[in-house]
């Protein structure tokens, strides 16, 4: 292809332009025509013989001067030089590119067309290839509701929230509504909106609760919607019921507990002990700030040693937000998702908790 493109440019440059009659040849032709015209005029009696002789002599002198003048070749030489430079430049492109590719490339590796990659064993495929395979299947079979249902949470984990919402919506249309599909649709819409729970997301969560009143995801986000609307007492009551209803270790219970902490309704087990509280009472504002910063730093160090502590990550994110350092909170959230696994319930609960405290998904990605 490189050679073909180069030839397409070279051919017009290499083609020798049509030879133009030189100025000398053109002038000689004009003078010959003048002599012929002079003879015709003399034969018809239009001019006198003496006048014809003078004119013929003048034309002859002009022809002699023209023949004696040196031939100009600089224009031709210049034209050749101008054509030679782009020819060399065009030839250099494929030569240099082939040389670099031969040294740095991998010409011996066989090509891997997308069709062949999608046809390989799923166990040997990457996540992107598996998603591409699913998308190819759904493009050919858009009525496969089960396929849309499987793909929707994968889109969510890849943070392709608009695609996730579309997949959930297709699954609901084709398979019918249930609690998981509706709550998944609502969560995708929340993330598309950057953490804001709009009316369409609320409708999805409410539909999920009609199917299953105990659906934790829908309960959490509807409580968060109440908080966003300024109905904090209602939100606290909903989160309190979640904390009491859900079993120990449930990620959504942890999210509810941290939401209550943020709302000022609970203390946290990781907070300062009694001795620290008494010591803080006698400190200056600057000393208290240093003490709090030290506690947050120690918590950060513990999480580096034990990164699977979901509650610890929640507390660290909350602490940074309380201190007004959104960048550190965002960094802690990123590290937590990497440690817990982007597809884990703990990570999803952390994302929901961050969104409930104003750390939107848009900010998290940046």
Automatic annotation (TrEMBL):
Domain Cytochrome c-type biogenesis protein H TPR, first and last residues per copy: 136-251
Domain of life: Bacteria
Pfam families: TPR_CcmH_CycH (PF23914)
Database matches in Gene3D superfamilies: Tetratricopeptide repeat domain
Subcellular location(s) per record: Cell envelope
InterPro entries to which the protein is assigned, alphabetical: C-type_cytochrome_biogenesis, Cyt_c_biogenesis_CcmI, TPR-like_helical_dom_sf, TPR_CcmH_CycH
Name of the molecule in the record: Cytochrome c-type biogenesis protein CcmH
Species the sequence originates in: Aquamicrobium ahrensii
């Amino acid at each position: 292809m490189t050679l073909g493109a180069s030839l397409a440019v070279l051919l017009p440059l290499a083609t020798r332009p049509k030879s133009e009659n030189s100025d000398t040849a053109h002038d000689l032709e004009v003078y010959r025509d003048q002599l012929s015209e002079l003879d015709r005029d003399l034969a018809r009696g239009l001019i006198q013989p003496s006048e014809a002789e003078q004119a013929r002599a003048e034309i002859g002198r002009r022809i002699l001067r023209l023949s004696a003048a040196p031939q100009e070749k600089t224009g031709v030489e210049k034209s050749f030089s101008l054509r030679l430079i782009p020819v060399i430049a065009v030839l250099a492109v494929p030569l240099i590119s082939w040389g670099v590719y031969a040294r740095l490339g991998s010409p011996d590796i066989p090509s891997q067309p997308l069709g062949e990659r999608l046809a390989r064993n799923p166990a040997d495929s990457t996540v992107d290839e598996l998603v591409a395979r699913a998308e190819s299947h759904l493009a050919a079979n858009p009525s496969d509701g089960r396929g849309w249902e499987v793909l929707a949470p994968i889109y969510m984990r890849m943070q392709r929230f608009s695609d996730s919402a579309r997949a959930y919506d297709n699954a609901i249309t084709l398979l019918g509504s249930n609690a998981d599909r509706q709550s998944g649709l609502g969560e995708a819409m929340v993330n598309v909106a950057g953490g804001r729970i709009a009316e369409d997301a609320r409708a999805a969560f409410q539909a999920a609760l009609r199917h299953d009143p105990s659906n934790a995801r829908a309960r959490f986000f509807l409580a968060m919607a109440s908080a966003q609307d300024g109905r904090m007492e209602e939100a606290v009551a909903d989160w309190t019921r979640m904390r009491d209803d859900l079993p120990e270790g449930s990620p959504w219970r942890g999210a509810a507990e941290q939401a209550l902490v943020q709302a000022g309704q609970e203390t946290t087990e990781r907070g300062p002990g009694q001795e620290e509280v008494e010591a803080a009472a006698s400190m200056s504002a600057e000393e208290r700030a240093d003490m709090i910063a030290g506690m947050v730093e120690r918590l950060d160090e513990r999480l580096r040693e034990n990164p699977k502590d979901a509650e610890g990550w929640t507390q660290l994110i909350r602490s940074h937000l309380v201190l007004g350092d959104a960048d550190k909170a965002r960094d802690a959230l990123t590290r937590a998702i990497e440690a817990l696994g982007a597809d884990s319930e703990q990570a999803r609960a952390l994302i929901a908790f961050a969104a409930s405290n104003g750390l939107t998904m848009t900010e998290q990605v940046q």
